[in-house]
Amino acid sequence: MPIQRHETDIPVAALLVAAGRGLRAGGDAPKQYRLVDGRSVLAHALMPFLAEPAIAQVSVVIGDGDEARYADAIAGLDTRRLATPTQGGSTRQDSVRRGLLALAASGFDGIVLVHDAARPFVSPAQIEAAIAALGTTEIAAIPALPVTDTIKRTDAHGHIAETPPRDRLVSVQTPQAFRFRPLLAAHEAAVGARMTTFTDDAALMEWAGHPVATFPGDPTNVKLTHADDFLRAGTRSAASLVTRVGTGYDVHAFCEGDHVWLGGIRISHDRGVLAHSDGDVALHALTDALLGALAEGDIGTHFPPSDPQWRGAASARFLDFAADRVRLRGGRIDHLDITIVCEAPKVGPHRDAITAEIAAITGVREDQVAIKATTSERMGFTGRREGLAALATATIRLPEQE
Ligand SMILES: Nc1ccn([C@@H]2O[C@H](COP(=O)(O)OP(=O)(O)OP(=O)(O)O)[C@@H](O)[C@H]2O)c(=O)n1
Ligand SMILES: C[C@](O)(CO)[C@H](O)COP(=O)(O)O
């Protein structure tokens, strides 16, 4: 697994706490496992962390008995940087502490981003802002938003006791960024001092005497807390993403050989294909379709044929890159449609395997992948069995603000 580093070369880990019971939200399952726009809240929250190149490791803290729900939630995600989940505690504070201890046991040290699984709308920009805000000098940095309502403190009878001046009040969110060792030490010290009612990790760091910096939060990065939040979440999620469609086309000529690669599958054939990479026309067309939907150039822009490192490369790498770009931009893939044009080899017997392979590479369900094939009725270069062609269409959704 390639471990990518923060620009200061300090390893960065993300810790998502998902062990709460969601009592205020109600429902049949803890809120992080409920679906918003076809995906669990936890999957929404995880995806931008899994796609962030600066993050080397993502750990999730889950509730006792939630193992099957967790397995369902992460199915189809890119789990290469996802650690085995840790069992949480009875409070958020205890769950974070347990997650930190598991990270320490794995030998981790560096920067940790602590995020609520109940905040599914976290953007790649907020994750990058958290890392940047910590920079090389801060110990803690948290996203903060100025409050727009007047905030009051009440007494035990519900009467107003105080109206603090609003100009310095902020409401804070996650992801909160910390130097790992001081955060773990603060958590351990708090347990030792029986200080167990902190509602965020920054409050723990304040208690331990550390300065906590702020950076601008994101009003859309709400925490789903009450049942009504789910009604608003469905609307927000659908409204904030716009549909983009991209198309791709690729051809390769046959040459001497005994197999071709099609849709990530090696198929025995009496010809090979002339290509710099493995010559998989289906994956090349699909990569271009995704890059087209993103308006981020084409396969040659990112993987120039003049670059020797791509000689013989598995085209799954190109497709994986394009699918990661969608996630990194906070988007999602809705549908992938491919038509392969050739007289031979026959695609039908391999359709299911190709579908499964493309779904696995791109992190979508198999029912979001359509594989079709046709001959060109013996006309043209495919009809004369001189080569293979593929066309692809990718439908994705991207955040509107982009
Ligand atoms: N024992 C706990 C309690 C909370 N959390 C996590 O901390 C985040 C913020 O907590 P909150 O919104 O309070 O979630 P719940 O505790 O699940 O909600 P409730 O208080 O309504 O039961 C959530 O991602 C939640 O899963 C956790 O990991 N372990
Ligand atoms: C961490 C947090 O999301 C920051 O706003 C918040 O404090 C969590 O509070 P809760 O009591 O767990 O809902």
Automatic annotation (TrEMBL):
The keyword Metal-binding applies. Signal peptide: none annotated. Pfam families: IspD (PF01128), YgbB (PF02542). It comes from the Bacteria. Its cofactor is a divalent metal cation. The record marks 24, 31, 276, 375 as: Transition state stabilizer. Pathway: Isoprenoid biosynthesis; isopentenyl diphosphate biosynthesis via DXP pathway; isopentenyl diphosphate from 1-deoxy-D-xylulose 5-phosphate: step 2/6; Isoprenoid biosynthesis; isopentenyl diphosphate biosynthesis via DXP pathway; isopentenyl diphosphate from 1-deoxy-D-xylulose 5-phosphate: step 4/6. The keyword Glycosyltransferase does not apply. One of its GO terms (biological process) is terpenoid biosynthetic process. A divalent metal cation binds at residues 250, 252, 284. 4-CDP-2-C-methyl-D-erythritol 2-phosphate binds at residues 250-252, 276-277, 298-300, 374-377, 381, 384. This is Bifunctional enzyme IspD/IspF. The lineage of its organism: Bacteria, Pseudomonadati, Pseudomonadota, Alphaproteobacteria, Hyphomicrobiales.
